[in-house]
TrEMBL record:
<dbReference type="Pfam" id="PF03717">
    <property type="entry name" value="PBP_dimer"/>
</dbReference>
<keyword id="KW-0378">Hydrolase</keyword>
<keyword id="KW-0328">Glycosyltransferase</keyword>
<dbReference type="GO" id="GO:0071555">
    <property type="term" value="P:cell wall organization"/>
</dbReference>
<dbReference type="InterPro" id="IPR001460">
    <property type="entry name" value="PCN-bd_Tpept"/>
</dbReference>
<protein>
    <submittedName>
        <fullName>Peptidoglycan glycosyltransferase</fullName>
        <ecNumber>2.4.1.129</ecNumber>
    </submittedName>
</protein>
<dbReference type="GO" id="GO:0004180">
    <property type="term" value="F:carboxypeptidase activity"/>
</dbReference>
<dbReference type="InterPro" id="IPR036138">
    <property type="entry name" value="PBP_dimer_sf"/>
</dbReference>
<dbReference type="Pfam" id="PF00905">
    <property type="entry name" value="Transpeptidase"/>
</dbReference>
<dbReference type="InterPro" id="IPR012338">
    <property type="entry name" value="Beta-lactam/transpept-like"/>
</dbReference>
<keyword id="KW-0808">Transferase</keyword>
<dbReference type="GO" id="GO:0016757">
    <property type="term" value="F:glycosyltransferase activity"/>
</dbReference>
<keyword id="KW-0121">Carboxypeptidase</keyword>
<dbReference type="GO" id="GO:0008658">
    <property type="term" value="F:penicillin binding"/>
</dbReference>
<dbReference type="InterPro" id="IPR005311">
    <property type="entry name" value="PBP_dimer"/>
</dbReference>
<dbReference type="Pfam" id="PF03793">
    <property type="entry name" value="PASTA"/>
</dbReference>
<keyword id="KW-0645">Protease</keyword>
Amino acid sequence: MAKRKKESMRASRNKLLFVMVLFALVWTALLGRAAWLQLFMGADLSRLASRQHLAAELERGERGSIYDRNGNLLATSVEASSLYIRPVKVKDVAGTAARLSKILGISKARLIKKLSSKSNFVWIKRQLNDRVASKIKQAGLTGVYLTTEYVRLYPNNQLAGQLLGFAGIDGNGLEGLEKEFNDRLAGRKAQFVVQRDASGRRLYLDAMGREVDIRGKDIHLTIDSHLQSVTENALADAVRKYNGKWGAAIVVEASSGDILAMANCPRFNPNIFRTSSPDIWRNRAALDIVEPGSTFKPFLIAAALEHGVATPEKLFDCENGRWKLNGKYIKDSHKYGWLPTHKILRYSSNIGSAKIGLELGVQNYHKFISDLGFGHKTGLPLPGERKGLIRPPSKWNEIDLAAGSFGQGVGVTAVQMAKGFMAIANKGVAKPLKLVQFPRSGEEEPPKRVFSEDVAEKVLSMMREVVQEDGTGTRSRISGTTVAGKTGTAQKAHKKGGYGTEYLASFIALVPGYNPEYIVFMMVDDPKPNHYGGTVVAPAVKKIMTETLAYYGKLPEKRSKTPVMAAGHQMYSEMPKKALKSNSAHFDVSDDKVPNLTGMPIRRAIEILVQKGFVPRLKGQGMTITRQLPKAGDKWPEERNAEMVLWVSKES
């Protein structure tokens, strides 16, 4: 019995010893393996892990959007796939080239040349459509990669085309506001490491390992899409009707200086900028220097009144329409004798204006128009804005002063003219123009009094006569509302010297004529057969003023608040909420179900979503909605930052 007990204890000790030895061997093996992995294989394994969690992907963040003053979308970005290769990772050059050639329609020889490159990175094709991108993914070719880029999209096509400008294939702004605000709008380039979380979602990290947002920032303009559309259509009608070469127009809110519309003709569609010439891209409202002609005369009259060299009733001999000064003839369109100052402006006498200018003197006149901003940039964020052409006083002779008094021999831009008339509308106080609501400029020009309130009212009174009496601007009258205005018919300088047979027709209007709230300036280059500003431009300006007052509910007569559209014109604007109320017959935004947006133009679909407080993300290329998320019939998301996606296509 004792012997069996001893044998049993010995067996137990042997088993325990065996287990201890076994565990010791296992732990020794594990520790050895860990040491091997850490000390000898650590670097290689770290690289392998990085492939799962860290990837040096080529990607640029989405470009920021551009909105009008009402939050309507003017420029956005749509996701698109682009194809690139890393030749060093391509194993089967010939086979890969053959597959890609069949999918992309690119010659096999050209692809073999790229695939044989010694470069680490080669673009194959940018901004593919969804169908082609899907085929590339399915092919699963080694060394061939797809990356997400963004195609710039302008949902309203030609609306404010020259003002907005455009961005190139690399996402950099090349013209207009896209260029001026490129640093803000451009998505940051993902040249740093992209980290993936456990679900495979990408996190963008900077060099310090901090998460960053690579999306560009948005900008909000003072432009109103509705009034922009109205202004563009009225301008296009005038240019087409009178066979003009080009035209420009600007609408300003007088009290704030906010530019509500800045139009150019011919129109420009930034979606297809490659098919247009730089001459069409040109924002002539800010870049073209012109001799304004008689629309400049109110500034002369204001200067003369301010310096006491004229009163509204002071008489000047207008020489029966023809006057010789230092061997040069100055002419009027009609034979006027003695006219008081207010009628010199009403009838637009060049001779009377010249005589007022000569009494005023070069120094006084030059300083006055300089204080109004002529000869200086307006400070608007417009690439290439011109400062005009106002020569130093020492370079003016008597003829120069006489001509400058009626707007010849001085060079100005449309935006400068609008800024100058803001001083008249604001009782003699010059204010800056504004084009961007957000972000606000850090340095803003402070208001400055240039002439007295009394002078401003007298000039306004004379400008009301131009329209309401028997002046040159009667075609701009609006029933029930006073209008202050001035016509301009400037003879254009000839390339060989002197003046030729071409004219620049223009009209400036301040409405209402008492305490003006809006300023409208328009000019049309070389109109034919009629070239008078009162005939060519004044009716178009009237149309803009009427629709502006109606839109803001300030027109005495009951009128439609929708844009005036000439036959054949496309409605480009992203309709503001005021106009949308009458444009939502098929969709009640108060409904709790998401409507079916498929088949709609992108502009209309965005209008519906924006009314509900959502800004959608766009995928694909084109202008027609083909798919949506959330689906039609789903409940509206409760969270305002919920994902809303629209897939677009060129197919209608």
